[in-house]
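re the bet — no i am not wrong, look at it urself. input seq straight from the record:
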Amino acid sequence: MTEGVKKKRWMPVLLSVSLALNLAVVAAFTGAALRHKGGGKMRPPVGSSGAIYMQALPEQMRREMHQKLGKRGGRKRVDPAAMITVLRQNPFDPAAAGAVLNTERSAGMAQIEAMSASWLEGVSAMSEQERHAYADRLEELSEKRKMRWKEWQGKERHGN
């Protein structure tokens, strides 16, 4: 009796693909839900001292400062190629690694000095009213950071 019925080989493949797609969708939604509910280990809030000063600036002023710094070559990224080379040397040379760190630190300090000068120039050009509005935004961001820090500390204590 089974000889007359042809078995459809594509049916198990189709069902497997359908199941895989359904699982992928469920996993994506679960991951998104956990991420937005603080799932996983929380990292401490960013505490960069100068970043908040830039963040509180009006958007247009921030853009102009970044453009100026880019033209001056003041916005450099760390290129780990030199450190990778040093780390792969055998035997390891701590002095060479230190030299790479010193070069990166010097470049970082030059960038911080350029950003500070640009910030001071921009804030000095503000009117009194603009400076007060900037101070208000800075205060608001500072309070938000304090609240996030307290929230992070509380979750860390409770093992979340």
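see?? Confidence is low (pLDDT under 50) at residues 42-46. told u. also DSSP finds six helices and no strands in the chain. so pay up
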